[in-house]
Design a protein that fits this description.
The complex is a heterodimer.
Chain A: H1 3-13, E1 16-20, H2 26-37, E2 41-47, H3 49-58, E3 67-70, H4 74-86, H5 94-100, H6 104-113, E4 119-122, H7 128-139, E5 149-155, E6 166-170, H8 180-198, E7 203-207, H9 218-233, E8 238-243, H10 245-249, H11 251-257, E9 270-272, H12 276-288, E10 293-300, E11 306-308, H13 315-333
Parallel strand pairs in A: 1-2, 1-4, 2-3, 4-11, 6-9, 7-8, 7-9
Antiparallel strand pairs in A: 5-6, 5-10
Chain B: H1 3-17, H2 31-35, H3 39-53, H4 59-63, H5 68-78
Classes of the chains: A alpha/beta, B mainly alpha.
């Protein structure tokens, strides 16, 4: 069973309600429909309900698979607004929220914040920036987390790591040049993401071109500082470094280079890059030379799961990302 | 709300969002150089401005402001 099959099986065991604020989009509606029809999620379409029902019928979809939420339903909107503003961890007040909720993306995220749905899935009509802003404003970042970031999950043929062929890597997509505090937060968020999605016990390595002082310079200082901050903030997590990449994932190399005890060295299942230059190049190398499948990016750092899908993604990929998001959301509820 | 009231209000909201003493801030305070905030603080500020002034400004417009005076200009245009 490959990793996607495992995640799909988890989704079916505990299907979550997923809101789709861009459901009029043909690819999005198809992905939502297929994921709902196959029992992975309960799709909730948010927008002009009449228009969405007509589109679903036109496209040959069984309307019983969907729940429709109409932006014009004042009674329901009032219920959401009341619940939202009553929470202590929200920013917008009634009037500003009502205005923002004219946009289906904000409406869906308000529903998510008050627990009407587990996830909002968007990004095909809205830009990544739109989704990140709405996520920060409506869902908010976790306490003590200073930045939004992402991880990818790589399935690398022939790689025999501590989780078989799988390795989680971050951040290869969002946070360009994190300072030490932000880098620490990327590692902490990554540990939480793999725990909620895969049930792994995270072993998180911060990598750069030095292993425990073998090299020196400001690029390394940032990473050692980040490790220290992350360990202080979350002593319960297995976070270690700084390591070179091989010392992080290869037991043989770790045995030679890491001369102190480490739960992580040689058997890391989460690798944190020092910046986006490294992260982006690294994921391309893994894909091109390692012939790996890379799933994601999965956004992290939010109070609950916020998703952004690629605008050019095919329906199969969108469906996969919807299901991954739903499993993460179910994992975060625990 | 006249310009002077708006300036006072925005200074208050910046102080709350960036957790600064209002006396440390002036219209010339630079977001980048003086406040060095993360994007999450700018999001908090935009939300506070929406709540308190009824101006709906975009994060991009707010993030492009060099100083607090620039932000007051952006909000004033929306009112």
């Amino acid at each position: 069973m490959n990793i996607l099959d495992t995640i799909y099986a988890k989704a079916k065991e505990n299907p979550q309600k997923v809101a789709f604020p861009e459901a009029a989009n043909e690819k999005m509606m198809q992905a939502a429909y297929e994921a709902g029809r196959d029992g992975y999620i309960f799709p909730v379409l948010v927008g002009n309900a009449e228009e969405l029902r007509a589109l679903a019928a036109e496209r040959g979809y069984d309307p019983a698979v969907f729940t429709f939420v109409d932006l014009g339903d004042e009674e329901y909107k009032t219920k959401i607004i009341t619940a939202y503003v009553a929470r202590e961890d929200t920013r917008l007040k009634e009037k500003a929220l009502a205005r923002r909720m004219q946009d289906p993306l904000y409406y869906a995220m308000a529903m998510q914040k008050v627990g009407e749905v587990a996830v909002t899935f968007a990004g095909i009509d809205n830009t990544t920036g739109d989704v990140l802003l709405a996520g920060q404003m409506m869902i908010g970042l976790k306490p003590d987390i200073s930045t939004v970031s992402s991880i990818g999950l790589c399935d690398i043929p022939g790689f025999e790591g501590s989780e078989g062929s799988l390795l989680a890597i971050g951040d290869s997509a969002v946070c360009t040049n994190p300072n030490p505090e932000q880098l620490a937060d990327i590692g902490i968020s990554a540990c939480e993401t793999v725990e909620s999605l895969l049930g792994w016990e995270p072993r998180c390595a911060f990598v750069c071109y030095s292993t425990l002082g073998s090299g020196q310079g400001e690029l390394i200082d940032k990473v050692t500082e980040a490790v220290k901050i992350a360990q202080e903030k979350r002593p319960d997590l297995a976070i270690d470094g700084e390591f070179q990449f091989d010392a992080a994932i290869s037991p043989a190399v770790a045995a030679k280079k890491v001369k102190r005890e480490s739960k992580v060295a040689g058997r890391a299942n989460v690798v944190i890059w020092p910046d986006l230059n490294v992260g982006n190049v690294a994921v391309k190398l893994i894909q091109q030379f390692g012939r790996a499948d890379a799933y994601g990016p999965m956004l992290q750092g939010f109070n609950s799961v916020v998703c952004d899908c690629s605008r050019g993604a095919p329906v199969s990929e969108i469906k996969g990302n919807i299901i991954i998001s739903a499993v993460r959301a179910a994992g975060m509820k625990k | 709300m006249d310009r002077q009231e708006l300036e006072k209000k925005i200074l208050e909201l910046v102080a709350v969002s960036y957790k600064k003493d209002p006396d440390e801030l002036s219209l010339e305070t630079s977001f980048k150089k003086d406040l060095q905030g993360a994007s999450v603080q700018m999001v908090a500020l935009v939300a506070e401005i929406e709540n308190e002034t009824d101006a709906c400004i975009t994060l991009q417009d707010a993030a492009a402001c060099e100083t607090i005076a620039d932000l007051v200009d952006v909000v004033e245009q929306e009112l």
